[in-house]
Amino acid sequence: MASKLLQLQSKACQATKFVTQHGTTYYKQLLEQNKQYIQEPPTVETCNLLAKQLLYTRLASIPGRRDAFWKEVDYVKNLWKNRQDLKVEDAGIAALFGLECFAWFCAGEIVGRGFTFTGYYV
């Protein structure tokens, strides 16, 4: 166990040296490549303004997203009314989507329990 700790400490030192030597260059290169996204002047006030703009822009987009949601619901209702005309491919896609949702739910439950499968802590 002590040897693994020493190995980890050694690797952490190597990573620190690498970041110390190349971090500034990487930072400058990253800013240069993405300078079109930088708002001038880069101050706290500008950041606060952008944060408010993002919040209210997202709030303003809710009605459009709500309308799109209800269009999807109407489409599903229409499919259900005309389920006799439903193709096997459409039913398969719907079944796979449902299975994927269930799998994500199960994975979330397992993660929420601390990666235990039974739910009991040993």
TrEMBL record:
Keywords: ATP synthesis, CF(0), Hydrogen ion transport, Ion transport, Membrane, Mitochondrion, Transport. This is Mitochondrial ATP synthase subunit G protein. It is found in: Mitochondrion membrane. It comes from the Eukaryota. It comes from Acer saccharum (Sugar maple). The keyword Transmembrane does not apply. GO terms for cellular component: mitochondrial membrane; proton-transporting ATP synthase complex. One of its GO terms (molecular function) is proton transmembrane transporter activity. Belongs to the ATPase g subunit family. PANTHER family: ATP SYNTHASE SUBUNIT. GO terms for biological process: proton motive force-driven ATP synthesis.
